[in-house]
Structures are given as structure tokens and as C-alpha cells.
Task: structure prediction
Amino acid sequence: MSDKDNKNKEINEFLNKSYEYGFTTEIESETIPPGLDEEVVTLISKKKNEPEFLLKWRLKAFRHWKKMPQPDWAKLSIDPIDYQAISYFSKPKQDDGPKSLDEVDPKLLETYEKLGIPLHERAKLAGVAVDAVFDSVSVVTTFKDKLAEAGVIFCSFSEAAIDYPELIEKYLGTVVPIKDNYFAALNSAVFSDGTFVYIPKGVRCPMELSTYFRINEAKTGQFERTLIVAEEESYVSYLEGCTAPMRDENQLHAAVVELVAHKNAEIKYSTVQNWYPGDEDGKGGIYNFVTKRGDCKGENSKISWTQIETGSAITWKYPSCILRGDNSTGEFHSIALTNNLQQADTGTKMIHLGKGTKSKIISKGISAKSSQNTYRGQVTMSKGAKNSRNFTQCDSLLIGSNAGAHTFPSIDVMNSSSILEHEATTSKIADEQLFYCMQRGISEEDAIGLIVSGFCKEVLNELPMEFAVEARALLQVNLEGAIG
Amino acid sequence: MAKILSIKNLHVDVGNTTILNGLNLDISAGETHAIMGTNGSGKSTLAKTIAGHPDYKIRSGKIKYMDHDLSDLSIEERSNLGLFLGFQYPIEIPGLSNTAFLKASINAKRKYQGQEELSASDFLINLKEKSEMVEIEQRFLSRGVNEGFSGGEKKRNEILQMLMLDPTLSILDETDSGLDIDSMKVVASGVNAIRTMETALLIITHYERLLNYITPDYVHVLHNGCIIKTGDINLAKELEERGYEWLINP
Result:
């Protein structure tokens, strides 16, 4: 065997390190049979005792979805998805929703402990409130009382639909309309749960909010819906994390996230996405088709997206900002890491409508082995967006010689006073960089980790401190020995 | 005197080309050796082979480093056992701060030797002292490894790393090339600071200039992959005056 083969073998051993979160939880679930028609949509709504307006809204979305073709993207190869073979609702069997942690099935708590997410308020993450979503439903939300004192609403979407129907009716679908795209329409028809956050006027949310999504059941899809509304002069920082068991078949995750920031409000939205990516032959893994959009509705409002995308077989998401309010700001900070046969097609849209609006895009793509990593972005400066600015920086790092990095920026400018800057680089982890680190006593895996974290520094710095360490570790785990 | 490095009849290939051709060299503790030679004589090949660069294949011969056969050791093991290579062209690692890099490096060595990680304060005190020795400003330390450094800054940064890692055998590959006289003095004083009776130095250079500041015990002339003459500092001076021709084609 040549040295190169030897090296490749070592690499494969590293890369074949099993996905750490690939276990399943043996728990009795109530899962409706696979298939999708109006009856199923109605059943989901009924099971959740939703108000009438929501059922009507779902049905409208479903009727529209049926007429839409599935989008086809140049850089993605997607096996056909049989939407009739998916079960659209699954929840852990429990008589009623748990009222407190004591009522939650211990197996569920165990699952989250295994994932490193302690839900016991006594063993809390320092000052982080957590909403845990298991398959289709939210199982527990911590720190509700403390947040309520500040007037902050942080609960599952299902509860919000019952307890705050007027807020849901007012904001749902205003940022991502049901007809927006194929997966958003599907989500609107069948979404099962998710998170609702409401920050009243003048309130700075006293802690980090976070939701952990877990797909457990086989042959189910997860369609969650997140809605965050920040009233005038308010601030919130929110983080979501995601994992799933290892399964041979592909599972669909089609979420919708809507953010609304009123005058002088700021929303910071961070994602650490670690869905099961499939095995080294590309078998199994999550299809992560997500629509995320924020509306900077008021003057001086700010929405900032930070994402660390390491999982999923296919990722298709473009967290975007509509900069409607004058002098509003949109930011997108992204690290997308692909390995084996993973495909990521991600980026952002910054739609400048208001005067003096600013946007910043920092995208870091890392591709190893035979994976494909695409940045797709759009910056639009409308006629009215006078004196607006955009800065875009897209950097790609290739590991090995089979990986692909692609950049598709699109820019539309309809006024003459706006300024756009675009920078892009592509680099490769050079053997000489590794040799240099190793000559300084650092192992090859640690060296790759250090080089990648250096490459990603600007984005990692954007994460809430509690999660930056976790994100670094995640990058390291997903990269060990990725050289070849 | 304890042997630190012992090279016997070393033949090294890069691709299909043989670069080192029966090289012998012994270095004992407390000694400083200089290797001189024309371009392409095999100087850098020797340095990279000792450090374990994967492109340099040992066809025959042995390199013994203290009690170890070097071919049994990985690149990082060699480093962790006190072997340091100062690079001719130090590598840039954007975004990774010099401080973080040095800390990872020192802690890797400590871990290998079964020691606990260095505390942040001990590390920083040491770093401050050593960076002052080589006149590297504190603000450089938070910049990426060699990122945007001038040629002289890169070389001084190599010496800083050497001082921090406190190696047993330091190989300096053309550390003097591209240095102005002030930087050369700084580099030389840093190098002289690690010369002890327990450590050894191998300096690879084209010119005798650096050797005016770091006096070697032995000067070897490398040609076509083997050592053709050994002398002391006077040999270096003679080479400076007469060039290599008289040795190569006598």
C-alpha cells in the first residue's frame, strides 16, 4: 500500500467516526399514518385544538402547495421525495402536554441529557432558557416563569396558538407568506410545533433563549415553525440546535422561521445545525430545506443571523433580511461545513427597501472529501433604498482535492447612491500548513481544527459565548482527519 | 558528551530524484554546527528529512536522535521530543492567533510528556518575556500566525517559537536570509540564549554573516548530497572570500 493509500485509510477511519447523536429513544409515540391530504391537515389541527383561523390558513396553504412544482437547484442533486410516504405528525405518547418537568417522561429527559441539554432547571445551562421539541411537539420549556416576570413570552407554537391567538393571527405568514416557496407552503399546511417568542416594548430579554429540535421517529418529517416578534426598543438573542438519529432513509426537515423587529429592536438568531448527515456512502441523512426570513420593519431595527451548519445530507437555506425600516441593519454570518457526500446550498438575501439601510454578509464554507458547498446570495437595493450599503465576504476552504466550493452572488441595484462591496476567496488547507503545525508538536487532527477555527474566527465570534466553545468542538469533531 | 543527532550514510529521495547521497553527521550536546553549501546542494532537504516531511523519503541510512530511530517517530513526536525546525519560509495560518498557536504547541508537548497544561498566566508571563527578547510587539501576538508579517518579522517569530518550546536540537533553515543587520542581531541573540551544554544547534546558511554572531564549533560544506569538507569558523570565512568553486572542482 502506498503512503497515500495509508493516509487515505487513516482519514477514512477518522471520518467514519460515528455520528455522536445517532441513537434512537424507545418511546411510545402516537404517529399518524403516512400520507398527506386535506384530512391529514385537518387532523393535525384538531389534535392541537387550534383556533379555526389556523385550520383555514393551513388548508389554504395545502391547496396552494398541491399546485406547486418542487424546485430544482442547479448545484443540488436530490433524490425524489415521496410526500405520501412521510408521516406528518408524531408525538411522544402522553395524556396531556406536560405542565412541569416532573410530568415529562423520564426517557425524554434522558434523551436530552444524552444530547448534552439538561432540561432540569437546577442543572440549567447558565442563564439559558430552553424549549425542547421532540419529533412534532414541544415537550418542555424551561424558565417560563422567570421570563414571564419580564413580560417575555417563550413557549411552544401550539401553546401560543391557544393562549395568544391574536398575536399569532397578526404575525403568522407576514414575513414568509404561504405561497413563498414549495417547502414553506408545505410547512404552512402541516407544521406541527415550534417556538413562539414575544418581547414586549422596551424589554431586553434577561437570558439567552434556545430551542433544541430532535427528530426521533422513523419515516416522519419535522416541520416546525418559529415566530419571534420584538416590539419597539426590545432585544432578544435566540439559539436553535438540532440533532437526529442515524437512519438509512432520508428524512425531511422543512422549517419556517419568521422574525419581526419593530423600531429600534434587535434580534440575534443563532443556529447550530447538526442533523444526521448520512453515512460515508451518502445513505440516509436529513434533507434540511428551511425558509428563514426576518423583517426589519421599524426604523433602526436590526436582525442578525449566525449559523453553523455541520449536519444534514442536503442543506437548502437562505436566512434573509427585509430591510424595510429606514436605517435598519441586516447581518448574516455563516459557517457551512460539508464532509463525505454532504451538499450544502446556503446563503442569504438582503433586500434593501428603506433609506440608509446596511447589510453585512460573512460566509465561510468548508468542504472536505467529496462534498459540495455552495454560497448563493442576493443583495437587492431598491429605488427607495438611498444611501444604503452592503458588504459581502465569501470565503471557501477546501480540504482534499475532491471537494467542491461554489459561489453564486447576485446583485441588483436600482439607485445610484448605494454602495456595495464584494470580496471572495478560495483557499485550500495546504500540506505545508499541516507540516508546520505538526513540526510544532500539534497532531494532524488538531492542526486541521486550528486552521479551520482560524478560518471561521469572524463568525465564531458572533455566537453567544456559551455556544462558541460548543461550536468549535463541533467543527473539530466533524473534521477530524478530513485531509486526503 | 551525549550524542544528540547521529546520521549514518543517509540517502534521501524527493520524487524520483536523489538529493542526499551518503551523508554522515554527528552532533553532540553543547555543540553548534553550521551547514553551508550552494543552492541545490541538499541543505533544506536535510532539515526537512530530519523533521519528517512526508515528501522526503529515506532510501537508506539511519538517523538517530538521542535514543530514538527517527523513522519510528511521527512529525509531532519528533517535535514533542525536543526537535525544532526554524522554517526558511514560515507558513501563514490566517485567523489563528500566534498566541493560540503557541499555546496549542506548548500544551501538545506538555501532554506528550505527561505534564499538565500550562496555566494561562504562566504561559503569558513566559510569552511576554520571550517576545521582548526577539523584539516582537504584543499586538503581533494576537494577529494570525505569520499573517501579514514582513520577512524579518516571520523569522523573529520562528525564533520566538523556538524560545517558547525550549528544544533540545534546533535546526535553523536559512533563518538569516532576507534579514537586515538589526534583525540578524536580534535573531542571533535569541539563538545564543538557548545554547547550553544540554542543547545543540544546526544552522543552515548560504553566508557566513550569521556565523559572526553565532560562532559554530563545526562548519560543514554540503555538495551533491554529502559533506565534502568539515572545518571551523575559519572555513566559513574562507568560503566567504573564495566562494565554493575551489572545493567543488579542486
About this structure: The mean pLDDT of chain A is 81. Chain A has one domain: 31-429.
